[in-house]
Amino acid sequence: MKNYWSLKLSKVALLFFAIAPSAVLAQFSNPELKFPNDEKYIYPVRPGQPGSLAGTMGELRTTHFHSGIDIRTDNKIGIPVLASKSGYISRASMSASGYGNVLYISHPDGNTTLYAHLDEFKGPLANYMLKEQYRIKAGEIDLTFHENQFPVKQGEVIALSGNSGSSSGPHLHFDIRDSNNQALNPLRVADFTEVKDNLPPAAEKIALRTLDANSRVNDRFGRFEFYAQRAGSNFVLSKPIFANGVIGVEILSKDKLAANSPFYGGVNYIEMRVDGELIFSQAIEKINLLETRSIYTLMDFKTMRKSGSRFYKLYIADGNELPFYEASPGSGKIKIQKEKESKVEIKLKDSYGNSSTVSFRLQHDPLIKEVPNLEPMKKDIEYDLSENTLVISAKTCSPAEQAIIYGNGGTRTKEADYYNNLRSVYLLDLRKEIPDSVVICGKSIVPKIRATVPSAIEYKFYSNFMDIRFPSNSLYDTLYLSSDYKLKPDNTEAFTIGNTLIPINKPIHISLKPKQEYPVKNNFAVYRETGNGGYAYVGGEFINGRIQFYTREFGTFTILQDTISPTIRPVYVNNYAARFKIRDNLSGISSFSATINGEWLLMHYDSKSATIWSERLDKTQPLKGDFELVVTDIAGNKQTYKQKIP
Questions:
Q1: CB 482 within 8 A of CB 465
Q2: Cβ-based neighbours of 575, under 8 Å, separated by 6 or more
Q3: Which residues contact 80 (CB under 8 A, 6 or more apart)?
Q4: How far apart (Å, rounded) are the C-alpha atoms in residues 66 and 437?
Q5: Do 451-561 and 567-645 come out as alike in CATH topology?
Q6: Superfamily of domain 567-645
Q7: Calpha distance 170→67 (Å, rounded)
Q8: What are the sequence ranges of the domains in the chain?
Q9: What is the band of 306 on the pLDDT scale with cuts at 50, 70, 90?
Q10: What is the CATH number assigned to the segment(s) 451-561?
């Protein structure tokens, strides 16, 4: 048995908690457990008193849809958490990441409530969990229970609120899930009178993007943002936007949760009409916890990665199979009508029915070559990829200058699609050709696109430096795969695979073919560059001179050696408790184990603060004698701390 917390496994704890429905389904075969079926859910924190939220169900997070509501606890730890409804505790877990300390209560109606980021459990369960931790000698623990073990009545204190797991501050995360493990909206399922909301959603920005190479917004190709101006409770763009071709609309919108609150929720209900005709309708009422990563097809991933802003796409993008659009009569893509000005109206609605509108006009504008308002170039030439289009911009040396395109064993020329005296823009449809290089005004770009990878079927890519296997449906859309290899001045190898601004749905398998020699047993592993000189541990296994690994992130990968042991800094060590800060400079903490006089001692861990602290099974016994703590990093380096406690 393991005698430590396995921190490597804790990285997937949040996903595991979300997708394990079998452990939390209510059965209620015991007729002695009689709970009223007509009980209404009560607010689980200080019911009857005014409450407020820090997040709502369906809200867009970085990697997933938020599955419940975040109930504020005034930035305090230790607020009593009550069972929202009668039932039995069907599952309890303790983890350094994800939901942290979390309880599941199954109810007679088939639903399950979840209470996460708890500080500690209360009642008979608390002592049971502690004994089990000592029995199996593990801090991380995940247990399921039958209905007779821990029945609870509505309003019973089951825990104290906290900040455990991947919480960004003290609060209670609360879910209601149905028998199919779909997350429901607590603000619509329950009548929580403690939370008042009479504020409609607000729009911050509108973005328009061209959806093919023949489309334009204000005479240009690409994605362009516009600030929305408030007009009472609604929002407008006062001037018409000139456009041509097929256009997609995105919106950056948030729902303020209370007048004096700094917190915002998501906008679950969005409709868009063009000249009165409904062309797009979104309603997020249930979330399939197995498909939450599909959020990358609903929001603009590239913008989120670059600026942190989470825009809703108001059109159904390729690869988007989410069930939120069943009532929508169209895909949301707008075909600009010639010689016509169209009125676009977007209706935003929150879970309480508060609504606001955003309106603007689209004016048809014919394609033109010479565009007056193009920005100056910082570089002589640069390129970007937008959907199926390679966008190349170059300093204008002559309006008539043609791009020389090399590829398929030959060359061809192409004139600029539009230009001014500062910049010339060339658009290449990658569905028709993938260039090896492009030369404009004596300057060249080499996109290094090696293959066109389909999204729906398995695909294998082979090269001199790497082999990649893409399982079926590992991508959301067709991928124009770029790759590169460099040997850096410090003799580290850099394998660049894809673009970090493109999301991956399912893990892909990569086999790197290094040119340098790496002794297999000397703590070498794959790391992904994170910017500013940082690295994220990936892992990998050496097989026949190659190192193989799985990833859900594109980027630049390298092979590094971690030979430095973790650091242990005591905060205090006395007869009451032992508390430490533990850190590692590269691969990260893998495990830790503590003993007192040779007997295993439970250590809790908070990864956010890099803190561990002890808890005795028998709290009447002081810590006394020989204390030892061993901390191991993922590369296998160990650090030991010893102290005799008088």
A1: no
A2: 622, 623, 624, 645
A3: 45, 46, 122, 157, 159, 160, 161
A4: 43
A5: no
A6: Expansin, cellulose-binding-like domain (2.60.40.760)
A7: 18
A8: 7-189, 202-364, 381-433, 451-561, 567-645
A9: very high
A10: 2.60.220.30
The full 3-state SS of 311-360, as one line of letters, equals CEECCCCCCCCCHHHCCCCCCCCEECCCCCEEEEEEEEECCCCCEEEEEE
Which bin fits 328, alpha (ψ -120 to 50), beta or left (φ > 0)? beta
- Cβ of 363: how many Cβ atoms within 10 Å? 16
CA geometry: angle at 329 spanning 324 and 332, to 5°?
75
Task: Tokens for 584, please give them.
Answer: 């590692």
User: What value, to the nearest 5°, has the Cα angle with vertex 470 and ends 469 and 475?
Assistant: 160
**DSSP string spanning 146-163?**
-TTTSEE-TT-EEEEEB-
| Cβ–Cβ under 8 Å, residues 431 and 451 | no
Residues 6+ positions from 45 with CB-CB distance below 8 Å: 51, 71, 73, 79, 80, 81, 82, 161, 172
Highest-pLDDT range among 4-13, 286-295, 369-378: 369-378
Q: Which of 428, 435, 473 is nearest to 454 (CA)?
A: 473
pLDDT at 382 over 80: yes
Mean pLDDT over 501-509 rounds to 96
7-189 — its CATH code? 2.70.70.10
Per-residue model confidence as pLDDT tens digits over 593-639: 999 999 999 999 999 999 999 999 999 999 999 999 999 999 999 99
Q: How far is residue 132's CA from residue 402's CA, in Å, rounded to a whole number?
A: 73
Taking only the tens place, the pLDDT of each residue in 399-427 is: 889 999 999 889 999 999 999 999 999 99
Reduced to 3 states (helix: H, G, I; strand: E, B; else coil), residue 84 is coil
Tokens 């009689």 -> residue: 34
- Total residues found in the chain within this entry: 646
Which two structure tokens, joined as six digits, stand for 115?
């209470």
